[in-house]
Amino acid sequence: MNSLKILVLDDEKVFRDEIREFLENEGFKVFAAGKPSEAFLIFQEFEIDILILDLRLPEMDGFAVLEQIKANYPETEVIMITGHGDMDAVIQAMRLGAVEFFPKPFRLLDMKAAIRRTRRFLDVSQRLKEVNTSLSIIAKDLKDSVGYEIIGKSKSIQQVIELMRKVAQAENTSVLITGESGTGKELVARGIHSLSSRKNAPFYAVNCSAIPDTLFESEFFGHKKGTFTGAIDDKAGWFEIANGGTLFLDEIVEMIPTMQSKLLRVLEERKVRRLGSSVDVNIDVRIIAATNQNVQELLASNRFRNDLYYRLNSFEIAIPPLRERPDDIPPLLNYYCEVLSKRMNKKNIAIDEMVLRAAMAYPFPGNVRELRNMVERALILAEGNRLTLRDFAFAGITPDLETPLETIEETTLDLEEIEKRTILRALEKTGYKKADAATLLNITRQSLDRRLEKYNLVI
Predict the structure, then answer these.
(1) What is the structure's pLDDT at 458?
(2) How many helices and strands (H and E) does the chain possess?
(3) Beta strands in 180-285 (DSSP E)
(4) Torsion of CA 243, 248, 249, 250, to 10 degrees
(5) CA 20 to 30 Å from 216, out of 52, 179, 371, 424?
(6) CA 46 to CA 111: how far, in whole Å?
(7) Chain centroid offset of residue 394 CA
(8) What is the predicted pLDDT for the residue at 85?
(9) HSE on the CB side for 400, CA within 13 Å?
């Protein structure tokens, strides 16, 4: 807490010196200024964490100073003080982004408590900034190496990305990815590969359900020329092809029992032998497996080997279905609309608000893949540059899409519910861009962040 840099801007020297001395005795680094021009010079030289700002000042009033500080130093938190406070002044200060408001006189211990509260908010903001920076870096790495991003702001999808980052560093650890069809299991697998030290080696994806039983062993381990009818050349198997890199086994549970036991042996011995050969080949391959089925049921019915499951399941990543993370639907809609419209040479495409409402109510049994296909179909059908409900096929959805939020009988709601609805409406109108939503609401970005946190709204 004592690492905070605090600036006191007040034209009363006695008060300014008193609060400065008190805060310095508490161990803070404190600066003082008697007029705004002096304060702005201090801001240019030091990173100020908290500004204690008087409302009545020479040169300009405290509200004008607050606006300039929030415009140029948005991460600085402001505590306002005044000897002429009224409710309108309090409301104006909070609207402009102040975190606390004290009428003079006040107890210095109360000011210390306010600084302590503000410090906790600064700490949380810093941690969120670090997490978001980390996630942004990961997302960029994925897009650069894989060509796709993992889109989503929900806590659950952020946890998936964080698990990807962590397990990528353990390059020999096998990973099992579970999730319904269309949730993006292969994208997660490719992301783990691209974030690991194996990223410059091959990534080879195999759909186990698409391989005939008679070809399984040859495809996995390879064969020598003449081993069987049709073996006209030596052929490397998937393990050799992916050597040094990653082998992604999609729908691993579809593998026949005999191959499950042979795969287990390869994973334990780290070597393979081509059909028709007497020579073992050492392999260094990371295995990432995936399935959309209930593994526990398969284990209970002996359709999947327990020992292979535990060998593969050194680290599991479960991708939640889209219906369990509706907060990700608006950014996904916007993302696919932007990407696919460019591919179709369509410009300035917008999504109608009613589409967002219907999408948020739709269960998406096909998950992200279904959403993407819906957007592609809508872009083909759309007449003009706006996607509307008639361009989509949200089967079974009958939400009250014709009633705008403003017409809801707000007299039955409390103030917090009205504020929450207003914030959600602003986010909808701005495509869930927080900076634009804050501007529309006429509040600061930091003020919007605090309200999103207050109402547990993950954007």
Answers:
(1) 62
(2) 18, 16
(3) 203-207, 222-223, 235-236, 246-250, 271-273, 280-282
(4) -160
(5) 179
(6) 22
(7) 26
(8) 57
(9) 5
For the chain, what is the mean pLDDT? 81
Residue 330 is encoded by which pair of tokens? 């608006």
Over range 226-230, report the average pLDDT: 77
Q: Which of 430, 246, 159, 342 shows the shortest CA–CA distance to 150? A: 159
Q: Are 242 and 230 within 8 A, CB to CB?
A: no
Mean pLDDT across the stretch 182-202? 88
pTM of the model: 0.56
Give me 134's structure tokens. Answer: 């980390």
d(CA 320, CA 179): 6
Task: Reply yes or no on whether the pLDDT at 1 is more than 50.
Answer: no
Beta bridge partners of 130: none
Task: Give the H/E segment covering residue 458.
Answer: none
50: closest CA among 34, 68, 29, 24?
A: 29
Q: Of all residues in the chain, what percent are helix, strand and coil, respectively (each to 5)?
A: 50, 15, 35
Instruction: Map out the domains of the chain with their CATH numbers.
Output: 5-124 (3.40.50.2300), 148-320 (3.40.50.300), 324-454 (1.10.8.60)
Q: State yes or no: pLDDT of 71 exceeds 90.
A: no
Strand partners, 271: 282
Cβ of 432: how many Cβ atoms within 10 Å?
Answer: 20
d(CA 3, CA 29): 7
Number of other residues whose CB lies within 10 A of the CB of residue 90:
15
Question: What's the length of the chain?
Answer: 459
* Side chain identity at residue 407, one-letter code: T
